[in-house]
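ok trying this again, last paste got cut off
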Amino acid sequence: MSPPPELNRKMSMLLQKGMLSFKPDSAYDNYFSKTFYTSKVDQIKKTAKKIGIELQREIIIENSTCISPSPSARPSEGAHILFAGPGTMAFCNYWAKGISSLAMGISYTLKGKRAESKESVNDCFKANPAPVILCSKLALYYGFFGTLIEYGQVNIRPSFVALRNELLDAMETFIVGHEYSHFVAEENIDQFRGMISSEQALKLEKFCDELGFKISREYGSEKDSYLLFTGVGALTFFTMFNLCEKIRELVLSVSLNDNEKHGEVFDGKADSHPPLIERIEELRRLLNAYTVPDQLNATVSFFDEYALILNTLCEFILEVAEEAIIKRGLRGN
């Protein structure tokens, strides 16, 4: 159901007013991303306060100059700075559309029953291939360009929009909640301040994943969102980010020679971050640790079903990509 015409008119007027009054501080400033992330940080602050966490210092929102999906926190003894922008917005928006379409298609095919095996998920892919094709296109586009900015218009069925909006919110809440946790660590935990070792950096990222997960759960309880409460937003972000970077590595392996390479390929791990696969596994442990016994079976089985669907999708797309990019020598230049 679309909003009433009068509401649409008022929303359009507010949007125009905001855009006209927006004064960019640099060439990278973007009205939409700065407005969105300012609002999201405000929401994260309110949610964190409910679990007893408050920051003393101001958070400044700056548009990221990077087109990658991951925002960046810069905690300091003065104001904290969060760099986030269109790269993160585009990545989450497109994948929320792709995965919600996929999940709804599977639900229709199985008539509301749970997907319990890789074979049953693959059968659903064959019965309704359109969402799989969309997800494959998204992964390949990212592989060639390193971002989903300017991928183009993607329309989904009106009946899928509610799930798409919930999944998008779940992904963005965890991402920003994780970055917010870096500011919490700076203000409250001595071992994570200033220059730290690689070992301490890994511990810091695990701390931020855990606190981001707890913030998502609290917000999920407020909004009655199972995707937030169970950590499926974080699961979706990590899994699709991992897939996209694997595809990008494949593309660059055949499209660039040693003299042409202009940047490192992120392979899901870094000195300061645990491998994405480990972070996904940790989400399930956190879900077990923070869920009360009478809710444990339902929440874990829900998480595991999404993990099964996402992993089966990734395996399929990687197989197709390897066939196209490696065996057939598809060029990226």
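PB: full thing came through this time. The radius of gyration is 20 Å.
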